[in-house]
Amino acid sequence: MSILDDVVINAKSAAEAVGRKAGQLVDVSKLRISAAEINAEIAKRYEVLGQYVYECSRSTLSADPEAAGQMTEIDELKAQQAAIAKELGDKQNKVFCPVCGKQSPTSATFCSACGAKLMPDPEPVPQEAGPDDAREAAEADGPDVQNSDIPPRQFP
Ligand SMILES: [Zn+2]
Asked: Rounded to the nearest whole angstrom, what is the distance from the C-alpha of residue 31 to the centroid of ligand 1?
């Protein structure tokens, strides 16, 4: 057995000893929390990256059927989101920022929170289902529902 083999074996048993000790000390639930936190962080990074790609590479991505399908889904959800936000705004005499979701008076031209241009009366998106369903659902809730503290739905 060479000197190198000895070194490797010693390092290995040292690492195993450390691993055993850590295993005794670290609570399993803490590991689970760490794993969940890392998973959430990964999901967040994917989301940011996905949004960036969606906004920057639409023309390139639309050539890919899978990507095009996902983008169509997002576009439809965004149309629903805009319809719901407009409906909420109409009920409250407020306009919702399409970027950050903050409310502003209908007289405002720009969002007071993020400075995005506000569209008090966005073009209705022609669509069979989505917005109409959302509008009917909103009307079904009745006028006495308190919507003021409910932010626009964030689609993950
Ligand atoms: Zn804003």
From this structure: 38
